[in-house]
Structure formats: C-alpha cells, structure tokens
Design brief:
Number of helices: 20
CATH class of the largest domain: Alpha Beta
Strand order of the largest sheet: 3-5-1-12-9-10-11
Strand content: 15-25%
Number of strands: 28
Radius of gyration: 28 Å
Largest sheet: 7 strands, mixed
Shape: globular
Structural class: alpha+beta
CATH superfamily of the largest domain: Aldehyde oxidase/xanthine dehydrogenase, a/b hammerhead
Low-confidence stretches: none
CATH architecture of the largest domain: Alpha-Beta Complex
CATH topology of the largest domain: Aldehyde Oxidoreductase, domain 3
Distance between the termini: 67 Å
Mean pLDDT: 96
C-alpha cells in the first residue's frame, strides 16, 4: 500500500483521525430515510403471519379456507403451498465439528411450521390482503388444530438423561464440542495453590432493534427474477443463502436491496421465514407483497441473544499467577440452529475468555441444547462479551478467595507490552497492545485512590457503594473478501462502493474520510453506495467489528489503484514519463516543475477524451476485491462505581469510564458513539434485561411493559479515553470498535454491584441484578 500523500489543507479537517460530523445525519433528521416500511410500490399487497400460541405440539391441520373468504384477503399460504412450490429449508450450521468429527445436528426448519410447532411464535400461515388490517382479519379466521406437547425451556433439562426429544431429526444434544490442552490444564490444576470455581449463568436477551423486521418481495415474470427489500447486514450473503438453499435458483435471479436499517446487532444478518413468504406470495400473485412485523411479533419471533451457562475454573499459584483455566459451557440454541448459533458458546468462548492475561493453558467444552424457545443468533459481540464476562467474574472471585487485591491481581497477570507479539493459549496471536499502560491510565483517570472517600460519603447517606475494574480483549471476525470500488462521476462527485452495510455505524462518513485523505477529493463530494446486490460485484457484509478493517483497507487499496491510473493519464496529458509524475495533495505534478492537474480535473478530462489511447486504463476508476485482514484485538479497561439503596435494592450507576485501544481511529467521535452504545447495552444486560419463558414455553417478557430496557437516565455521562496502539495486521492500523463496549460493560457493572454487596457476605447473584434480586440478597445477608 502506498504512503499517504499530504492531504490538501482545505481537506485536513476531514482526514482520518478527525471527529467529522456524520454525513448521514442531515438526511435522516429531515425524515428522508428510506427504511423497509417506507417502500411503497404500485399494486402492493400486505402480509400477516399467524403464529403458534403453543411452544410445542403436533400440527393436526391448518385450514385457511375461511381466511380466503375474508373481505380484502387475496391469498393465504401454509407449509403445504411452500413445499408444493419446491422451496428448501433454511440451512443450519456447519461452522464447527463435534468431538467425534461429525457436523452439528441441525433440525430441518422451513419458513412455516410443518408437522410440529417448536416454539411459541412459530409461523403457521401467511395471509395476504389489500391492507394490513385485512390481512390481520384474515389471519384470525384461520383454523388450526395443534395437540400440545410438554415444553422444555431449560437447556440442562433438555440434556438430562431421559428427556423428551424435541425433534425427530436432531437430538436435544445437537453440539458436543471441545478445544484446548486438557492435559496441561489438569496438570496445572493439580499443582495449583488455589482454584476458583464458579457457575456463571448468562441471561437470554431480546435484541429489540428500533426498527422491527420487515420485507418487501417482488417478482418479474418476464425475467423470472425476484427482488427483496429488507434490512440485513450484507446483501450478497443474504442473496447467496436465500437463493441457493431456499428458493433453489441461481443467485443472479435474486436482487437484494437494503437501504436504511434501524439497528440489527447481528440479528438481521440471519435468514427468517418471512423472507421467503413475501417472495413466494409476490410470484404467486404477480404483485409486490410487504410484511412488517409489529413489536409483539418481534418479541416472539426475532432471534434472541446470549443464554449460556458456564462452569468456570481458574487456577493460581501462591503468588497469584494464573496457571490455567477450564470452562464447561452449556448453550441454549432454542428450537432451531442458526448458522452461527453454536459458535458463540464454543469457539468464541475459547478465543475470548483468555482475554489479555498470560494464562498458560486453557480448555473449553461445550454442549448445546435444543429447547422450545426462539432460536439464538449473534447479538452484539456474539460470544466475545460472554468470554470476557466469564474471565472477569473468575478473576474477581479469585481475588476475594485468596486475599489478593483485585486491581493488583489483574496487573500482575497482564501480558506485558514487551511480550507482544504473543501467542495466547487460545491459539490467537496478539500482534499489538500495551495492556498494563491502559490499566494504569484507566485507574488514574477514574481516581481509583479517591474511591474510599466516595464510599464513606455514600455510607453516610445510608447507601452501599461498590466499584469494579475489568480488562477485556476481543477477537474480531477473521479474514474473508471485501469490495472496494471508486468511481468518478461527470458531476464532480466520487462514488465509493463496498459490501459492508451500515445499520447506524456511520460508514458513509468514515469511508469518505479515508478516500478524502488519500485522494484529496472533497469530503462532501464522496458518496457511498451500499446495500444493492446489483450494484456491488461482491460483498462480505458487516459483522464481527470488521467493517472498518475490511472496507477501509479495501478503499485504501482502491485509492492506490486510482492514483496509479491517474499517474499514467497525467503523464499522457502532460507529455512526460510516468516516472516523472508525483501525486501529492490531490494533484498530479511533473516532478520539479509547476505543471500540475488536480485529480478531479484529470478524471473529467479522461471522461471527455472520446477514447482511450493504447496502453492507458479506461478511466481513473478502480474496483478491487481484496483479502480482508486477519482478526484484530481491540482491548481496554473499564471502571464502574455504583450506589445501591439497601431499602429498595435500586442500583444507580454513578461513575463510568473506559480507556480503549482500538488502534488508529478514523473518526474518534464515531468511535465514542459506538462505545457509548455498547456500554449501555452491556449495562442493560447486567442490570435489567432478560427474556423469561415459563415452563410451558410462553414468553413472559413479551413487551416493553415486561421487558426492561436501559434509558438515558440509567447511565451517567461516560468518560471515554483512547490509548491507540496501531494494529500491525492491516495497513490502516485499525482494530474495530463496534462491539467492544459491551464486552467491557457487562462484567464491570455486575462486579461493581457484587462489590457493593460484599460487606453483607453476598458473593453471587443471578444476572440481571434487578432491584428485587439485589434487595433479596441484602435481606439474606442481614440474617
């Protein structure tokens, strides 16, 4: 990759490293966003999914004949219609192997329930009408006969000997996995001076995106081509799976369009039955069909996150050095297996639980269970927050049990800067970082030494106060492919194209900064095109905190290609050798002279040349499919202080700060926004969010009246610091930041609560630490 030429002075405020305001915001604030529900096509019909009220049962029959007679209803479909059309099931997972080398047992999953229903909310029928209200009326006329069966919602119950098997084609124990050096771990445990053991349940959460899921399907009979509009995280990945596995067509016969997206957090990267339903109905009816879920349907049918149980153990010697760690995981995958579902409680725990400590040996086992709950899919961090949470709970537990200071125990075991590059026991090779320096900076920034005085002040008011410090390290998504394309337009604007897809991160701003800095093109003249499979040659999509690394490096390489094309054209225009052409500050210049032409003027001249001389590129444009960088390792230190009212159990987050190493920052303001959001979601899980099913498989927290969400008043103003150590694994030196806030926040907030309760002898609580649970722990501690 070329050295970056000096940025023109007028553009320096838009270069990488500057806190540039988001390009996206004015359009969105004016109400000019185009979300799935904003799509209004001529002749469009509207669909409604009738969902099962039972969590488990045998389907004896579904009769939609009465629904078809309801005024305004134009069609009603069941699984029989989908099977008759020849569609396939949605794929499960083959991303890991069981201990015996076999693939996970993925039960067959169709867009609508077949012979059984396996969770409350599973689709039974799809009714299409002239209006959304008529479609709902039609759904109420559908008759169904389901013989209820006992439901299993607890993964340990599902894995118990003699448990009723939920599926005929897959055992409840669908994944049995292990990785690590078990002999070394056992040897370390045998010689350890102390082993901390802890059971650590990790609660299930609802994704609760601001924009519910939706989809609009179209079909063109002349070309035999489908089009689907929906929010997702990568149009090419969505197209490939939906076309080849489900529709049974060539990918080119499916056009996927994803405009503005009101949040995803991993969930919308997955396939859902409604994607097929709108396409089937559109082809059958010869008109577009829209389906938009309501919030109740979203609670029931959106894939959820987390839901694991960890039995963790950390071995230490007499001095407090970590010797080994073992984690035995149980993952609740829900009723069906999403492609990434089994990876989160297995491989991603292995990669991330080692964190930034020099633990010599680690071993992880994982058993995944199928239950009568909605399926689990990636949710902000997708196993990385869980791994860090397990480690940080164990470290605090070890400090308490051995008498070591929790801050000094961490400091003692951090990988020193001089040991990097460092190969962790997880197999990950950390290329960069200064973990002790970040801890030191965070402690100073948080006024750690002044905590005792603040605690005394809280106690004087009858309050309990606690604090926690945690360190975290994430392993971002691994290598793949990504598109970076740059095109010069006649109007003077530059179009940039890539396969990653923005759901609120600010891609149009960050990527424009990279291109502005490298090419000297005005920031406001750079327009991002994303989310359209017809316009993009390919695309790896967004996920795993990799967009800046993947698309950013792709744009950097594409910029190099543009400059090389420009040097050849500039040499031709100024009648000199290519070797004499320099590119600096947005201009091609003949070395040692004042003869120069700006990149935009040259692009315009090339476009109007009327032909391409032999040996010259057709234009300055560049389009590259690049190998994306390997995993990076964002890391940092979070510190939290809480105050608890012992009479009510109410917990208030009083102070919160974090120092992070995200490598080089493209836009610090965007990074802080991502960090704030991640911290809030982590605090939400630690203090209040949890999806609860009763023994019959009914979701008890099925609305915002029952499912608590963090609000602005839940959190204080955050103090965020940056300690960038550039990554060496990619040319831009960036590490990713989108999910790191969650990884640090969950253990920090939860450990601070336990610290506040520790004078009462409280050492554990179920997560989330709701006021009721805290109050009960206080009463028990007072006994």
């Amino acid at each position: 990759m070329n050295e970056i030429s000096p940025t023109p002075p007028a553009f320096q405020k838009f270069a990488s490293g500057q806190s540039v305001s988001r390009k996206e915001d004015p359009r969105l604030l004016r109400g000019e966003g185009r979300y799935t529900d904003d799509i209004d096509l001529p002749g469009m019909a509207y669909g409604y999914v009738l969902r099962s009220p039972h969590a488990h049962g045998v389907v004896r029959g579904i009769d939609v004949s009465a629904a078809r007679e309801v005024a305004g209803v134009v069609a009603a479909y069941t699984i029989d219609d989908l099977k008759a059309a020849g569609y396939g099931p949605f794929p499960g997972s083959k991303l890991l192997k069981n201990i015996d080398g076999s693939d996970p047992q993925s039960p067959v999953r169709y867009a609508l329930a077949d012979r059984k229903v396996n969770f409350a909310g599973e689709g039974l029928a799809f009714v299409v009408a002239e209006t959304p209200a008529a479609a709902r009326d039609g759904a109420e006329a559908v008759m169904f006969d389901i013989d209820p069966l006992p439901a299993i919602v607890d993964p340990e119950e599902a894995l118990a000997p003699g448990a009723v098997q939920i599926h005929d084609d897959a055992a409840n124990l669908c994944v049995d996995w292990r990785e690590g050096d078990f002999d070394a771990v056992e040897a370390a445990f045998a010689k350890a001076a102390h082993v901390t053991r802890m059971r650590i349940p990790i609660n299930r959460v609802v994704v609760a995106t601001m924009e519910p899921r939706g989809a609009v399907g179209e079909y063109d009979a002349a070309s035999e081509r489908f089009t689907i509009h929906l929010g997702c995280q990568g149009v090419h990945g969505m197209r490939q799976t939906l076309a080849t596995a489900v529709l049974k067509i060539e990918p080119e016969k499916l056009h996927v369009i994803s405009k503005d997206i009101g949040g995803s957090f991993g969930m919308k990267s997955q396939q859902f039955g409604e994607n097929l339903l709108v396409l089937h109905a559109a082809r059958d009816l010869g008109r577009p069909v829209k389906w938009i879920d309501d919030r109740s349907g979203a609670f029931l049918s959106d894939y959820q996150g987390r839901d694991m149980i960890a039995d963790g153990a950390l071995a230490l010697n007499e001095e407090g050095d970590f010797l080994a760690m073992r984690i035995d995981m149980i993952g609740n995958l829900g009723a069906y297996m999403t492609p990434f579902g089994p990876v989160m409680p297995s491989g991603n725990i292995m990669k991330n639980a080692a964190s930034l400590y020099k633990t010599p040996a680690i071993a992880v086992t994982c058993r995944c269970a199928l239950t009568n709950t909605v399926a689990i899919a990636p949710y902000r961090g997708a196993g990385r927050p869980e791994g860090n949470y397990i480690m940080e709970r164990l470290v605090d537990g070890a400090a308490r049990e051995t008498g070591h200071d929790k801050l000094e125990l961490r400091r003692r075991n951090l990988i020193p800067a001089e040991a990097i590059p460092f190969k962790a026991a997880s197999g990950m090779e950390y290329d960069s970082g200064d973990f002790p320096a970040i801890l030191t900076e965070a402690v100073a920034r948080a006024d750690w030494d002044g905590y005792a005085a603040r605690r005394e002040a809280s106690e004087a008011r009858g309050m309990l106060r606690g604090h926690a410090v945690t360190s975290y390290l994430e392993v971002t998504a691994g290598p793949g492919k990504e598109l970076g394309a740059i095109r010069f337009n006649p109007n003077g604007h530059v179009t940039i194209l890539t396969g990653s897809l923005d759901q609120g991160q600010g891609h149009a701003t960050a990527f424009a900064q990279i291109v502005c800095e490298r090419l000297g093109v005005p920031f406001e003249a750079i327009d991002l095109v994303q989310g359209d499979s017809d316009q993009l040659k390919m695309g790896g999509g967004t996920g795993g905190s990799k967009s800046a690394m993947a698309s950013g490096n792709a744009f950097a390489l594409a910029s190099d290609a543009v400059i090389e094309n420009g040097r050849q054209w500039a040499a031709h225009e100024m009648e000199t050798a290519v070797e004499d052409i320099e590119f600096t500050a947005g201009e091609f210049r003949v070395a040692g002279t004042d003869r120069a032409i700006s990149i935009q003027d040259l692009a315009a001249r090339v476009a109007s040349a009327g032909g391409t001389p032999d040996g010259l590129p057709d234009s300055l444009d560049a389009e590259l499919v690049t190998d994306t960088p390997p995993s990076a390792f964002p890391n940092g230190c979070h510190i939290c202080e809480v105050e608890i009212d012992p009479e009510t159990g109410h917990c208030r987050i009083d102070r919160y700060m974090a120092v992070n190493d995200f490598g080089n920052l493209i836009n610090p303001m965007l990074v802080e926004g991502q960090t704030h959001g991640g911290i809030v979601q982590g605090i939400g899980q630690a203090l209040m969010e949890t999806a609860i099913y009763d023994d019959d498989g009914q979701l008890l927290t099925g609305s915002f009246m029952d499912y608590a969400m963090p609000r602005a008043g839940t959190v204080p103003s955050f103090d965020i610091g940056h300690h960038p150590v550039p990554a060496t694994s990619n040319a831009l030196g960036i590490k990713g930041c989108g999910e790191a806030g969650t990884s640090g926040a969950i253990p920090t907030a939860f450990n601070a609560i336990l610290d506040a309760l520790s004078p009462l002898g409280v050492t554990d609580l179920p997560m989330p630490a709701t006021p009721q649970r805290i109050w009960r722990a206080i009463q028990k501690g007072r006994e």
